[in-house]
Design brief:
heterodimer; A: 450 residues; 3 domains; 14-stranded mixed β-sheet; 11 helices; B: 219 residues; Muramoyl-pentapeptide Carboxypeptidase, domain 1; Arc Repressor Mutant, subunit A; 9 helices; flat
Chain lengths: 450, 219
């Protein structure tokens, strides 16, 4: 009886051993397959990184040569051509650099320098095209810029050599060294510690004047939180003031008191009141109704009323569209027949109850001042001559439009059509220059101006 | 005794197979993305099908069995390949434009990133996340396109771990639209972090502008 038992146990053990061996072998094979496919993925990823790296090196090398030629050239036309190319090289270099897996912000100085280089050279080229000279200051800056680019190039060449010796971008991006990964540590020599980046003074893309814009429309003294809350209560008349809860302050471009409100139906409102003057700056609220009962025209009236309640009068609807269950309405002041586009106010109205779900007046308070608008020098009919003759003009009005870098110009706005598409053409009312064209692009998310 | 051992070994084997296969499957399929039309595209499709008399349900943007059978009937009648999938061909036949323009794909990407990064946050917190992405596009310190900013390596956790491939909900879309329309509750912030989970010391050196929900927004 006992021997039978032992035999049985032995047989069972053998079976278990066989089954376990099969399991181990199978797992081994599966593991092998997954490791080999992992290696494949890693290699293709590494190849993409390396391609970007070498393209970065190319762009920097090209920018360096061209900057050198600019300093050697004596022709404004040739300099403008080269400056445009350097701008493109810098922009491409920025794109390549940002595709490398360094830790975010680890290379902020370098990226900023490269982006500014692109904006600076573009602006200089534009100045040359307009018949201006570079001037000795810009030449001096370009010399410093050139030296920095040479330093970056030297650094990248050292890194290239490391890559030939098997440095893996992927591996080094996965190893952490403090806050930053190992790749970032490798690249930080470029980031302002070994290379000095010169200041570029210009009025163009990424310039400091664009980043540190001043708020023009809030020449009021500071109010207390209670005053701001009361002001908000006067605007949101259907909500008792006591139910608005103060949720903190924000200290960005605008300084605000922030309030929120929530009710049992899931309605949620977040509103920001400026410390200066206690004006409503932003209101945000999601649409919880998901149905449409109100016509767009009524929504436009609601938007204008709301803006009046916020203390901004004399506004007209300049654009409106229904997207989903909301009406998006843009308002702008109309002063002595001229629409003031820089002072745009954006309002979102829900089409079920007619509630204002969104209000955004930061452009208004950023730009609004008492402007002295010079009268148009060109008549409407002579400005109309400047519009491409293939376009059919439907409507025209005078408007002050914002151009890049804080310029504002008085224009005739011509609403035109061509082959079923709508265009807005802006002709300068002083000198007849075609300043801008906007095209209405219909998408499944409403129409857009592009 | 024997049967007990057999059962145990079979269980071990089964467990190993299952775990082995699932690891293998995970390693090989983690990047699979199921292509789903956006809710707004589905809504347009439903309303077209309703106009044509194929669809009787609500215009809710949900691709359910009713929508599917309507699509199949439409495809059969219009001589398209009958698969119930609303592809470019079917969209074309319905006269619905899919998200083809540059701006629409920007909106979709933005909504995806908002949903992945901040779906548990209050609405304004979601607008704020979208606004930070747009502020980065404008900033010289970051890439100059929406896709460049979103897919910048290591920039967003939810992009890095693949949550970006989740389908955004309507709230995320609304928030993304509001941000594209110029709403910026952070007034120019370039960073946000959750103080509970943030691991980087560096992030605390930034000037805090506003706290919304669980996120601190900073310049």
């Amino acid at each position: 009886m006992e021997t039978v038992e032992v035999k049985r146990t032995n047989r069972a053990l053998t079976i278990v051993t066989i089954i376990l061996s099969i399991a181990v072998i199978t797992l081994g094979i599966l593991y092998g397959i997954s490791v080999s496919s992992n290696i494949k993925y890693q290699t293709s990823l590494e190849n993409v990184y390396q391609k970007n790296f070498y393209e970065l090196v190319d762009e920097v090398n090209n920018a360096e040569t061209k900057l050198n030629k600019i300093l050697a050239s004596n022709s404004n036309e040739y300099r403008a051509k080269l400056l445009k190319e350097v701008s493109k090289n810098a922009n491409e270099a920025q794109t390549r650099l940002n595709m490398l897996p360094y830790s975010v912000n680890g290379l902020a100085d370098t990226i900023t320098f490269v982006n500014k280089l692109s904006g600076y050279t573009e602006t200089l080229a534009k100045n040359l095209d307009d018949g201006k000279n570079l001037g000795s200051e810009n030449i001096a800056t370009l010399e410093k810029v050139y030296n920095s680019v040479v330093d970056i190039k030297k650094y990248l060449n050292t890194m290239s050599k490391q890559m030939w010796e098997g440095f893996s971008i992927t591996d080094s991006s996965l190893k952490m060294d403090g806050d930053y990964n190992y790749l970032t540590k490798q690249l930080t020599a470029m980031n302002g510690s070994d290379i000095e980046y010169p200041t570029m003074i210009y009025d163009g893309p990424f310039s400091d004047s664009q980043i540190n814009k001043e708020v023009k429309g809030l020449n009021f003294s500071d109010v207390s939180m209670e005053v701001a809350k009361n002001n908000l209560g006067k605007i949101l008349t259907d909500i008792p003031v006591d139910e608005l809860s103060f949720s903190g302050e924000s200290n960005g471009h605008f300084q605000t008191y922030d309030f929120s409100y929530q009710n049992a139906d899931g309605k949620y409102i977040f509103a920001q009141m400026t410390k200066k003057g206690g004006k409503l700056l932003t209101l945000s609220s999601p649409n919880i109704y998901n149905s449409k009962k109100i016509e767009l025209q009524n929504a436009e009236k609601i938007a204008i009323n709301f803006s009046n309640k916020c203390g901004i009068d004399d506004v007209v609807v300049v654009w409106s569209d229904i997207i989903g269950d909301d009406a998006y309405i843009n308002l702008a002041p109309k002063i002595s027949g001229v629409i003031i586009y820089p002072d745009l106010i954006k309002v979102k109205v829900d089409l079920d109850k007619g509630d204002v779900l969104g209000y955004e007046a930061s452009s208004y308070y950023m730009n609004h001042t008492d402007r002295k608008i010079l009268p148009a020098r060109l008549s409407e009919s002579s400005a109309r001559q400047m519009v491409n003759s293939s376009l059919k003009v439907k409507d025209s009005k005078l408007a002050l439009i914002p151009l890049e870098y804080d310029r504002e110009v008085l224009c005739y706005e011509f609403t035109c059509t061509m082959e079923g598409s709508t265009y807005y053409v802006y002709i300068n009312a002083i000198n007849g220059i075609e300043e801008n064209i906007l095209k209405v692009v219909n998408t499944d998310n409403g129409s857009l101006l592009m | 005794m024997k049967s007990k051992l057999l059962i145990i070994s079979f269980l071990i084997l089964a467990f190993m197979f299952v775990s082995g296969f699932s690891t293998f499957y995970m390693l090989n399929n983690s990047s699979d993305v199921v292509e789903v039309a956006s809710a707004s595209t589905n809504k347009s499709v439903q309303s077209k099908l309703k106009d044509l008399g194929y669809y009787t349900g609500n215009i809710d943007g949900i691709y359910g069995p009713l929508t599917r059978s309507a699509v199949i009937n439409f495809q059969r009648d219009y001589g398209l390949s009958v698969d119930g999938i609303v592809g470019p061909e079917t969209l074309g036949a319905l006269g619905v434009s899919n998200s083809t323009s540059q701006s629409s794909s920007d909106l979709y990407l933005l909504a995806k990133c908002v949903y992945a990064e901040a779906r548990g946050e209050p609405y304004v917190g979601q607008v704020a996340v979208a606004a930070v992405i747009l502020n980065r596009v404008e900033s010289p310190e970051f890439p100059n396109t929406i896709s460049g900013v979103i897919y910048q390596p290591w920039a967003f956790t939810a992009v890095h771990d693949g949550q970006i491939n989740l389908e955004p909900n309507d709230t995320a879309y609304q928030a993304a639209k509001d941000a594209l329309n110029g709403w910026d509750p952070t007034y120019g912030c370039l960073y946000y972090y959750n103080p509970v989970t943030a691991t980087s010391q560096w992030i605390y050196s930034r000037q805090v502008v506003i706290t919304i929900g669980k996120h601190v927004f900073a310049i």
